[in-house]
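Hi everyone,

Forwarding the result from last night's run.
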Amino acid sequence: MKFYDLAAGSNPRRVRIYLAEKGIEVPMHQVDMMKNEHGQPEYLKINALGKMPALELDDGTVITESVAICRYFEELNPEPPMFGRDALEKAQVEMWNRRAELEIAIPTAQCFQNTHEFWKDRLEQIPAWGEACRTKVMKQMKVFDEHMEGREFLATGDYTVADISLQCGILLGKAVGIRVPEELKNLSTWWERVSSRPTARA
């Protein structure tokens, strides 16, 4: 088994945090974007999209997409449950994980790709779209702040993959100056809670 990783990547980080929470160790192989290793034929055979992460199993089967990889490990290692304990919790985790992706993580990534110097010669940037995504994220943070009133974690009473998705999205935002406003007390407290977990540096 081999995990194709990108140290600074938001999606690979989701899997690394998940694995750390589970106490699962997987051999890691770093893919160097600066050397365009992700665009070479060798890696494109692993993931035709040229993105990380990817998990290659012992029989050669490859699983891509961070949540899909986490779900694979969840089936093999159900404790502690990171996708919910029963039907209702599983639905709540799915709902809030999706919202964390669509409303925070993805538009933050779009802001990063369309406004940050790192991507200048790597893709066509549309700065106006990046700024629109920034505005969306700041607006949607208020929704998450209201939801977090009286709650410890995002979806259930436990730290789940939904928290990890939101956590990684907010962390990526620091690269483009997107931070949780101080006045959003509930979300700020949640952020302090999850970012202080030992696994946050995975």
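DSSP finds seven helices and four strands in the chain.

Cheers,
N.
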